[in-house]
Amino acid sequence: MPKMLWTADYSPEWDKRFQEVVEVKRAGFNVHNRANDYFDEDELIEQLKGCDIFFNAYDTVTKRVLENSPDLKLILSVRDGPEEGTDLKACKELGIPVLNSAGRCTVSVAEFTFNLIMNMARPVFELTSTMRRDGWTKANQQSLRNIVTEKSTELYGKTLGIVGLGRNGRQVAKFAQAFKMDVIAYDPFQNEEAMAKEGIELVELNELMSRSDYISVLARVTPENHNLIDFEQFDLMKPTAAFVNTGRAALVNADALKDALKNNKIRMAAVDVFDGEGLPLTDSYYDIPAEKLILTNHTAGFSRERIDHQYEIGLSNLVKFLDGTEIQNNCTPGVESTDAYKSHGGKLFGINKKVQV
């Protein structure tokens, strides 16, 4: 039976299910469940000795780790973007497929994103904090009502602009359409006719910025799209518009966003992603009033159900690989055609059939 190093989130239920397929070795974050409890290169090389498979979450897999882990044949990743922590080029060169749990966060991210949009349309945070502080009396009834009448807007008939129409972006579009919003999007990799069938109008980025009442950023980061949304783009927005980034910090120039909020170029924003994991109190984001800016700690993708999504997909990836039926959710396309694959991933692919024979 193949041996699997498992450092991703622990689940007793999924532990039992994986042990029906492979021998499981738990280590790192999987055992301690502490943030940033990840292995360095030497530690990971040591942990991978004798392991055929690595089910990873956030440990960094470098070329050096791969070159010094001769037993490793397959990497499973819970991440939608495993390239953020794994050298996919080196994996392909060394014949080690990387299969990811694609779509594990789709529902979580989309719901969280649309929840932010709804809270920017309706000032629930401000209303409830004011009411908890002052109560609800005859003396303040009008001021409480004014919060709603002055700041509350309906989503019905408004335009949502989505930057990035991957799984998350398209799910947000469905939520918006359920609220009878018009949906436009910028994504140079999508087909105009196909998106039109889903009720989404593809437009150029600057047109999206100027037409939208709400903007949701959900694109993947590439070398070409850093600071995709900059001062020029914020200057195009309506002063009544609101902006949400639950995608990646690198897509948006934070200084440009802060400038747009401080100078009332836009009405409001919500940000879940920042440069680095953290936002110290010295950051100038905190100078912007809470009524204009919602801040959350990179948590859009989390939910109780996410762990089940990621392991349901991951186990399916693993079983199909071991059965030799499919290389599913392959982040290293073409790896099976490399010479190195024969002595690495190829040794594991279809091993269940080989054992039965």
Automatic annotation (TrEMBL):
Gene Ontology MF terms in the entry: NAD binding; oxidoreductase activity, acting on the CH-OH group of donors, NAD or NADP as acceptor
Keywords: NAD, Oxidoreductase
Pfam family membership, one: 2-Hacid_dh
Residue span, D-isomer specific 2-hydroxyacid dehydrogenase NAD-binding domain: 115-300
InterPro entries: D-2-hydroxyacid_DH, D-isomer_2_OHA_DH_cat_dom, D-isomer_DH_NAD-bd, NAD(P)-bd_dom_sf
Domain D-isomer specific 2-hydroxyacid dehydrogenase catalytic, residue spans: 14-329
Keyword NAD: yes
Family the entry assigns: Belongs to the D-isomer specific 2-hydroxyacid dehydrogenase family.
Protein name: D-isomer specific 2-hydroxyacid dehydrogenase
